[in-house]
Specification:
Helix content is 47%, strand content 19%. Helix 7 packs parallel to helix 9. The longest helix has 21 residues.
Length: 273
């Protein structure tokens, strides 16, 4: 079936594509100010993920420009993964300081509603003790999320974690019962089989997802193609999720990012036609 057809007579994909939000995960890539400017010039991009320190490094006029240019702006990796992936094994005082620090950072985000943290869920899920610690940490963050009006996105990778962990994650989120905690889904398309099925890989995670990243190694000669993206757009069409769908191409010193962004912008334009 053409990827711009109709899904089970529910939605016209052509109409759905027109309203999607595409952009770049500048936060995950740690783009410099120069690269940020070069990679976000495309009219097809109306979404941006940026780290708080990247945003604070901009001048006031530059910050205003970026926040006004993009319809959707997320904060990527509110704290470094090197810290957050270890926090479930840390002592109580360190975990308390972690909660207080995150609460302060939520305040600093201003109008940015969404922020992500990477707790290495693949290592946590299935370990009752680690799950219990993470559950306690997230409940500790809940009051700050409510007070500041923020939504916390937990980073989760596919297909590296497998379908079984996807089911575990769904159960974990449902048992958590915190509406202000959702997912930042990191998809590695070049690790998938050509005939991959998003439903088999992700199950019902589309109900919890608020950001999608397409991650790949550009230095290895990989490029993001329509065949990598379209199945996921069809998968999310059933819930009406419109993005952001963000590009995250790894390359040393981000040297290939401008080229990859140009290709993704063209792809986004083609979807929106």
């Amino acid at each position: 079936m053409p990827d711009s057809g109709t899904i089970k007579n529910i939605i016209s994909l052509r109409d759905y594509y027109k309203d999607l939000h595409f952009g770049i995960a500048a936060g995950k890539l740690s783009l410099s100010a120069a690269h940020l400017e070069e990679c976000t010039v495309y009219n097809a991009f109306d979404a941006l993920e940026i780290r708080l320190e990247q945003l604070e490094a901009l001048s006031a006029p530059e910050r205003k420009k970026y926040l006004s240019k993009f319809k959707i702006c997320h904060c990527g990796n509110l704290l470094a993964p090197a810290l957050t992936t270890l926090i479930t094994g840390a002592g109580r005082m360190i975990q308390k300081e972690f909660t207080e620090t995150c609460s302060q950072l939520f305040e600093k985000l201003g109008d940015i509603q969404y922020a992500s943290l990477d707790f290495s869920l693949s290592q946590v899920l299935g370990d009752p003790e680690s799950e219990a610690v993470l559950r306690k940490l997230l409940h500790g963050l809940h009051p700050a999320l409510v007070r500041t009006g923020k939504t916390l996105l937990l980073s989760y990778s596919l297909p590296l974690n497998g379908s079984e962990n996807s089911r575990r994650l769904t159960a974990f989120l449902r048992n958590l019962m915190i509406p202000d905690i959702k997912l930042r889904l990191e998809i590695h398309p070049h690790d998938l089989k050509p005939d991959f099925n998003p439903e088999e890989l992700a199950g019902t995670l589309r109900l919890e997802t608020r950001s999608v990243l397409f991650c790949y190694n550009a230095d290895a000669g990989n490029h993001l193609l329509r065949a990598h993206v379209a199945p996921w757009l069809r998968y999310f069409a059933l819930t009406g999720f419109k993005g952001p769908f963000l590009l995250s191409p790894f390359s040393r010193e981000n040297s290939l990012c401008p080229v990859e962004c140009a290709g993704y912008a063209k792809l986004a334009e083609d979807f929106k036609k």
